[in-house]
Tyrosine specific protein phosphatases domain-containing protein (Steinernema carpocapsae), 492 residues
Amino acid sequence: MPFPETLAGISNKNSVVFPHFLYLLSADSSRFRERFCVMATVKPQYSSIRSKIVQNTPDSIQCKLYCKGRTCKYCNSDPWKEEQQALKGLYSNWVTKDILAMSRPTAEHIDRHDLLGQLKRNNIRSVINLQHVGEHASCGPPLHKSGFSYDPENFMSNGIYFYNFLWPDFGANVNSVLDNVKVVWFALQQGRIAVHCHAGLGRTGALIAAYLIWSEMQTAEAAVFRVRRARPNSIQSAGQIDMLMKFEEMVMHNGRAIPGRPISFDAYLGLQRQYLPSGQQRLYTHIPKIIRAVCDRLLHFVFDSSQKFERKLDSAHDLAECTVGRLKINWNGVPASQRKRTSDVISETLSTLCVNNSDLPKHSKTIGFVNVDTVFKTWSVDKVLVTLHNFMVALKRPSTDQEGNELKQILVDLTHEQNTDKKRSFDQAWICSAVHLCNVFCCLIEEPSFFEFEQLMSIWFLSQRNNQFNGVAVEYMNAQRSKMFGKIGDSE
């Protein structure tokens, strides 16, 4: 449907388009047109009026009026077709290959349909419950003394993790959603997960959609479509869709790996800490995850699997390793001829970046703190390097010559200390990032290209297109390469 007709034909009775009209106008016109047309079709299953009526109806009456009390279909197995039961006996669907949306299980489901066995066979290691204690007490079988429709201890005693988030029915608090999706991420590191509220539609769908927004940088509309495609009628209320729109706005503004506005190094790392899952926050305390992701992609390109970072167990900070560890490479793991070919590709791109700025690759706005490493695994080397360059020039560099001179002096000191065990420790995170890049690129490229890399370092860290390092970085890279790997043999 053409845009004007779409605009003229929308009724706002069951949509959440108009509360976001001004927000969309702040975007560029093409994005406004695209999002407005899509939003016109993302409607809640229930109107705002109905949602308010349900929310203000006492729980016991809600169950009788809207859920049919003890015969509630969401608490029973009989009404559902086979394709609606990813887990037999339970209204359930796989939304992603690792996230199952389901209605709340009951003690009967657990006993009659061997739910615990089904969870284990499907490698579901965590159950996430979004209900409040005592919620929907008149639906289905009587509640367990735990206040839920089952005993959570049954899951935990069988090696299945249990989480309870307490989301209000038909609603969600955008301020707590970020913490919740981080828990979802953590749970997924253990295995697949199952999420439920009462019906497994409204709150369950909203949490899964929020996770897709945060972890994959999807738009709210795309996330809603994806959830509904897998589990029809999900994400029911206008409030839930409104929450997802606000959550998307927050994530897109603050959760991008490449900032859309000038920002200092420390401020960037602050946002990174806020949006990364807790398991990654310490690893990237001083180094932006996007820098590490670029380095990992390039190292894999040149050395395949013959490289790794070894992290020390003590908590002392060592500038040469920072928090990511010391790079170890098996130089004989890749033939010298292959290594030279791949190294030349990197060097050619660096040469181009020294004289010309390149535009960000398409879809760079979909790179977030969480998914940057996953995205880069499929990107070409030149695309990854161009992205790194654009990221570095987007950050505010040190504001004084003194800070720039400090970085150069640190590289000099580290060069002279290569053969000692003396440790150096600094608080400035941008210095850690500079040293880390030198440590990695001294392995990726050959010595003649060190000078071009040093020129880029001058642009990235000193905001000077004319090389201000005067060979200091080159000397450090030569010393570091010699100390870490010795003389490289080309006999393979």
The chain has a mean pLDDT of 81. The CA atoms of residues 263 and 451 lie 28 Å apart.
